[in-house]
Write a structure and sequence with these properties.
The chain has 505 residues and is mainly α. It has 18 helices and two strands. 68% of the residues lie in helices and 1% in strands. Helix 16 packs across helix 18.
Length: 505
């Protein structure tokens, strides 16, 4: 059965109405309420249009600096910030800035992002159909994806999450065409889209493992064809990777940077903050007990008062707020000493003392000691229990962080229901990819493909990045919705057979 054009038109119109109604609800709520987000910033609107994020700075600065200094960089005063972020979203925003100016760029980028998202949802519909051969599964995936409150809210932000999942949908669509009919043009186009998506959100590069599996699966009986297909895909990717790599090579005087690179501290808090985060990541997710929040409290306190009394009062407060797991293998006196050294570093940095580096090295030494203690005395906590906590925080959460109206849900039945459904659905998605990979044979290829992407992303988040925020799941949402639709379809089919057995049963 083919997918009806009338049904597609209905989906497009329904999505457009839903997106604008949902986001009007969010924006009106921001305008009429004083809200605080998890990073202690105030919910607000950028130029009364998109929802303000502290990450705006990382994507909207490049075009403005380029027009002023001819340097496409976040900050021309910071060493090699030209290569700090991949270029696709800054260029995407920059296009709107050039056309519409500062205020207009935030206004009109919302509509572009909505248009791209709706187109991407239709592409996911066809991608799912091409991979599974089922219109029912295809519609389930597209409807669940398109009406996802998290994704829809991000369309009114000015950060990569507003664009990156759509690029993954386009990539899946092109891969599905190549799966059905392995033609050279499809593989080249898929490679080019892979590069665009990765240069928007670098973590999307992890889907390359799944793509390698797909290429091998299609050409399993023709080894030479595997190499040829890989060449076509790589040639397409080179269309966008090559100019970026060459540009980076030139401005860094000879460094080969495929995606992005930072020198020292990635967030301008100084290297002691990095070592604080490393220690925290040994016993919990640093997003739950944030090194940046601790540093910000110290920096803000120093800006208000430089007295030792206020310093000790702040550190005493921080120690009172210390989670119990922080005391694994370290006592309070060691942690207090490390916090004191970190505070002294920020004070010296703010006063631009000549001994700042020495004071900073002292803070690093004390923080490294905390990390070494827990790794030496409680390795099972670092390498078993903490990763399990990461898995729990990835799966058992609602992805509702970017939605202002759900930030104050206590005592509001409708919001509690919405948030509860989102929580249960997120858990279901991960159950579907685990259970479906074992028990569903009809769509085994796409289940393995999706599982590889999700598993690779989990491995990177837990064992390499050692840091998780809910938004890190956004690039894997498209494959999760495909597997969720497959699993849901098969479960519903089995239940239906039990309720209404075939006539010849």
């Amino acid at each position: 059965m083919k997918i009806s054009k009338l049904h597609i038109a209905t989906l497009v119109i329904s999505l457009a109405l839903y997106i604008f109604i949902w986001n009007k609800w969010n924006i009106d709520y921001i305008r009429t309420n004083s809200l605080k987000d998890i990073n202690y910033a105030t919910w607000s609107l950028a130029h009364n249009s998109t929802i303000f994020s502290i990450d705006n700075y990382w994507y909207t600065s490049q075009i403005k600096n380029y027009l002023k200094t001819r340097s496409f960089t976040i900050d021309p005063h910071i060493y090699r910030y030209d290569v700090r972020r991949t270029p696709v979203y800054p260029l995407f925003y920059g296009f709107h800035y050039i056309l519409f100016g500062e205020s207009g760029s935030y206004h009109y980028i919302r509509y572009t992002q909505v248009f791209i998202f709706i187109l991407a949802t239709v592409c996911l519909l066809f991608a799912t159909y091409n991979f599974t051969g089922s219109t029912t599964i295809a519609w389930l995936a597209a409807i669940a994806y398109g009406f996802n409150p998290t994704l829809v809210t991000y369309l009114y932000y000015t950060i990569t999450e507003a664009l990156s999942p759509s690029l993954v949908c386009f990539l899946l669509f092109l891969l599905s065409l190549a799966y059905k009919e392995p033609k050279r043009r499809y593989w080249i186009a898929a490679g080019a889209m892979f590069a665009l998506a990765t240069l928007c959100r670098p973590s999307i590069v992890l889907i390359s493992i799944a793509i390698a599996y797909l290429i091998i699966h299609i050409n399993i009986k023709r080894p030479l064809r595997i190499l040829l297909t890989g060449f076509y895909f790589s040639a397409g990717a080179a269309l966008f990777f090559a100019p970026h790599i060459i540009r980076n090579y030139i401005i860094t005087d000879g460094e080969i940077i495929v995606l992005e690179k930072y020198y020292g501290d990635p967030m301008n808090y100084g290297m002691p903050n990095i070592h604080l985060r490393k220690w925290i990541s040994c016993w919990t997710n640093p997003a739950d007990y944030s090194s940046e929040v601790i540093s910000n409290k110290m920096i803000n306190q120093i800006a208000v008062s430089n007295s030792d009394k206020d310093k000790q009062q702040l550190i005493s407060t921080l120690m009172q707020q210390l989670p119990e797991r922080a005391l694994i293998a370290n006592n309070k006196s060691d942690i207090t000493a490390a916090y004191n050294a970190l505070y002294d570093y920020y004070r010296a940095k703010q006063q631009k003392l000549p001994t700042t580096n020495t004071i900073g090295n002292n803070a690093i030494s004390k923080l490294e000691k905390l990390e070494k203690n827990i790794k030496h005395k409680a390795p099972e906590q670092v390498y078993i229990f903490t990763p399990l906590l990461f898995v729990k925080s990835i799966i058992v959460q609602s992805n509702s962080y970017p939605i202002p109206i759900l930030s104050d849900y206590q005592g509001k039945r409708l919001l509690i229901i919405i948030k509860g459904i989102m929580l249960l659905f997120n858990i279901y998605l991960f159950i579907s990819i685990f259970m479906g990979s074992f028990f569903i044979k009809n769509q085994r290829m796409i289940m393995i493909f999706s599982s590889l992407y999700v598993l690779t992303s989990f491995t990177y988040i837990i064992f390499i990045l050692h840091y998780f925020e809910a938004r890190y799941l956004i690039p894997i949402f498209p494959v999760l919705y495909i597997t969720g639709a497959i699993y849901g379809y098969h479960i519903a089919k089995r239940i239906s057979l039990k309720i209404t057995p075939p006539d010849n049963a």
